[in-house]
Amino acid sequence: MNKILLLNGPNLNLLGKREPDVYGSTTLKQLEEKITALGESNNIEIACFQSNHEGEIIDKLHEANEIGVDGIIFNPGAFTHYSYAIRDAIAGIKVPVVEVHISNVHSRETFRHTSVIAPVAVGQIVGLGMIGYELAFQALKERVKGRE
Ligand code: DQA
């Protein structure tokens, strides 16, 4: 069965509680359940992982590559803007990564306008709220099914 990893970075464990005016009221658990259900109805296994730690995220990216995950939906949180280590991890693996941001980072502080991840991602979905994760799933599903 094809497999997609839903990967969330720092502070996204607080979804639903954290700055709800910016990130909405959906919790991480609800998001993970939603994407898992989407996976089930498309015969794609979903693995979910969230970490506040850069090294753990890098290890997960390497592991996803080793076990042959077909795609990664990834919200790197604030690491987006400065983690060359995560950027290099993505550059070093074969798994396609779709970068997701819940908020419109381009309408926020200047430091959020830069993504060091974007050049190594297959695409970026920004500012559409939680639906961005579903759109990323659809995009990866097309890639996965196109290869079958
Ligand atoms: C975010 C945007 C980042 O700038 C921020 O640090 C986050 C969440 C988003 O989903 O909009 O933690 O990635």
Q: In words, what does this structure look like?
A:
It is a single chain. The protein is of the alpha/beta class. It contains five helices and five strands, in the order βααβαβαββα. The chain has helices at 20-23, 28-41, 54-67, 84-91, 131-147; strands spanning 2-8, 44-50, 71-75, 97-101, 123-126. The chain has a five-stranded parallel β-sheet with strand order 2-1-3-4-5, with helices on both faces. α3 runs parallel beside α4. The longest helix has 17 residues, at 131-147. The protein is globular. It binds 1,3,4-trihydroxy-5-OXO-cyclohexanecarboxylic acid.
The share of residues in extended strands comes to: 15-25%
Rough outline:
globular
| Distance between the amino and carboxyl termini | 11 Å
CA radius of gyration is: 14 Å
Across the major sheet, the strand order is: 2-1-3-4-5
Contiguous helical run count: 5
Average per-residue pLDDT, rounded, comes to 97
Portion of residues within helices: 25-40%
Uncertain stretches of 5 or more adjacent residues? none
What structural class do helix, strand and pairing data support?
alpha/beta
Oligomer: single chain
Helix and strand sequence: EHHEHEHEEH
Find the count of extended strands (DSSP E, 2+ residues).
Answer: 5
Let me know the largest β-sheet. Answer: 5 strands, parallel
Ions, cofactors and other ligands present here are:
1,3,4-trihydroxy-5-OXO-cyclohexanecarboxylic acid
